[in-house]
Amino acid sequence: MPIQDQEALKIAQQKRLFFMICRECGARNPPNATKCRRCKRKNLRWKKRERSK
Given Cys at both, which of 9, 27, 45, 50 links 3, Cβ 3.0 to 4.6 Å? Predict the structure, then answer.
């Protein structure tokens, strides 16, 4: 069942799509992270996203 409330949909998309991934261990980190929460390395990337059609 899709989310009808547009504000709730925007919040859900932010949580699901905007976070950092560690290139070393694959841990999920918050968007404002500068180093990994698990292995403490600074090799982070954004989660890959595709545009919806």
Answer: 9
